[in-house]
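Why do we care about 3D structure at all? Because function follows from shape, and shape follows, mostly, from sequence. That is the central idea of this module. The next example makes it concrete: a single protein chain, its amino acid sequence, and then its structure expressed as tokens.
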Amino acid sequence: MATLVGSDGAVVWLVAVLLVLMAGLGLALLAATRRFR
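And the structure:
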């Protein structure tokens, strides 16, 4: 893992993608709950 930190910031991109995916899932859940309610 230590080598990935110095390789073109691969970890930064992975974290950014994970954050975007989590945000998308959160918005989808909020939209679903609002629709059902």
